[in-house]
């Protein structure tokens, strides 16, 4: 690890993880992320020239890795596989010296087409989102009637291509909490790590209520009653999921408890939107425009200073302050910031 280049924020948290959103578009309309009533046919999605180009993303990533201490890159969206030639971006990032890990979060629907090429380009891991094993529940959640089988085929294609696979399930009370146990059993059998994500108040359009959150404690208790679990240590500082293993097996699950058990004190992630805004928190109300300076004649050194200053001044810890500041805050939508 190159500690000389590491930047630290106001609370002494380093920057290690850069999440790059490559598009704000998606072929799903998940109710908790891009509700169809709001993200309809007239929604003003970004135009091509408003997106950061692959050249711009490569230049920025180099600066983040070589001069700010970033080690991990995660590609997200919108649905990242809707961005044309995405494998080309993976190939470029893979070549950057110092990138230790390249992962992607995807809804899985386009993986049968792209998994092999992504692996060949250097992608290591995919987190595939799936919230239910029942078509009637899943079709409603994804807002497009997409079948469970479509995503299962994506999961299989990713495994076959040699990508490490994790499954993400957002849990919302009354929506899919009845699916916690069936999903746990299914993915235990398949041997994939399933991660339960507490429904979060990202953005302002998803009608979030605290009552809709199924807290980590309950998820673990419910599974433990049927399939005993034991906690395991985090893989590294700043890992967002609390890990558990099924007793007597080597299959794990994780729970991402942004609401019931905040982990801001170790948060080392920055998020770059497809339009070139940098956010230092998932719940940020405003970002920092990086596209304009990138498209001006600033040198790499000047851009580095700009980015260092942003991280140095970071004071975000929204999940720890939610109950006080949460209610009326204007926040960036999940499909823009990328999760
Ligand atoms: N389209 C890709 C996908 O769905 O995996 C990548 C982008 S999506 C915004 C990233 C992750 O955020 C997904 O796992 C999704 O389920 C999760 N997510 C979206 N809205 C959420 C919310 N309100 N609370 C918790 N997780 C959410
Ligand atoms: Fe699309 Fe992912 Fe948001 Fe669902 S969670 S609407 S798949 S970006
Ligand atoms: Fe990081 Fe913000 Fe989430 Fe806290 S609320 S863990 S600072 S992204």
TrEMBL record:
The record's free-text note on cofactor binding: Binds 2 [4Fe-4S] clusters. Binds 1 [4Fe-4S] cluster coordinated with 3 cysteines and an exchangeable S-adenosyl-L-methionine and 1 [4Fe-4S] cluster coordinated with 3 cysteines and the GTP-derived substrate.
HAMAP family: MoaA_B
Residues at which [4Fe-4S] cluster 2 binds: 264, 267, 281
Protein name: GTP 3',8-cyclase
Stored SUPFAM superfamilies: Radical SAM enzymes
Protein's gene: moaA
Subunit description: Monomer and homodimer.
Any one Pfam family match given in the protein's UniProt record, by short name: Mob_synth_C
Function: Catalyzes the cyclization of GTP to (8S)-3',8-cyclo-7,8-dihydroguanosine 5'-triphosphate.
UniProt xrefs under CDD domains: Radical_SAM, Twitch_MoaA
InterPro entries membership: Aldolase_TIM, Elp3/MiaA/NifB-like_rSAM, MoaA, MoaA-like, MoaA_NifB_PqqE_Fe-S-bd_CS, MoaA_twitch, MoCo_biosynth_MoaA/MoaC, rSAM
Family according to the record: Belongs to the radical SAM superfamily. MoaA family.
Species whose genome carries this gene: Cytobacillus spartinae
UniProt-listed Enzyme Commission number(s): 4.1.99.22
Alphabetized GO MF terms: GTP 3',8'-cyclase activity
């Amino acid at each position: 690890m190159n500690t000389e280049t590491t930047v630290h924020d106001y609370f002494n948290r380093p920057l290690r993880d850069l999440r790059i959103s490559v598009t704000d578009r998606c072929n799903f309309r998940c109710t908790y992320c891009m509700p169809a009533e709001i993200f309809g046919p007239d929604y003003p999605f970004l135009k091509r020239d408003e997106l950061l180009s692959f050249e711009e993303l490569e230049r920025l990533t180099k600066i983040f890795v070589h001069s700010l201490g970033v080690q991990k890159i995660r590609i997200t969206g919108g649905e990242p596989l809707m961005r044309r030639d995405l494998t080309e971006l993976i190939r470029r990032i893979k070549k950057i010296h110092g990138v230790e890990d390249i992962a992607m979060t995807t809804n899985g629907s386009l993986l049968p087409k792209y998994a092999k090429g992504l692996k060949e380009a250097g992608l290591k891991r995919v987190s595939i989102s799936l919230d239910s094993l029942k078509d009637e529940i899943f079709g409603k959640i994804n807002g497009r009637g997409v079948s469970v089988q479509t995503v299962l085929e994506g999961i299989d294609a990713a495994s076959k291509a040699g990508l490490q696979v994790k499954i993400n399930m957002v849990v919302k009370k009354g929506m899919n909490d009845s699916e916690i146990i069936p999903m746990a059993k299914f993915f235990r059998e398949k041997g994939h790590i399933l991660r339960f994500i507490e429904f979060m108040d990202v953005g302002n359009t998803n009608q979030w209520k605290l009552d809709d959150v199924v807290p980590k404690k309950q998820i673990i208790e419910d599974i433990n009653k049927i399939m005993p679990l034991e906690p395991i240590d985090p893989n590294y500082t700043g890992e967002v999921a609390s890990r558990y293993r099924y007793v007597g097996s080597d299959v794990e699950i994780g729970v991402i408890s942004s609401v019931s058990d905040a982990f801001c004190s170790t948060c080392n992630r920055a998020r770059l939107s497809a339009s070139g805004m940098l956010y230092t928190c998932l719940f940020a109300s405003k970002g920092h425009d990086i596209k304009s300076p990138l498209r001006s004649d600033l040198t790499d050194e000047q851009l580095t200073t700009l980015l260092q200053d942003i991280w140095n001044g970071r004071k975000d810890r929204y999940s720890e302050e939610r109950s006080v500041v949460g209610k009326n805050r204007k926040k960036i939508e999940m499909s823009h910031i990328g999760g």
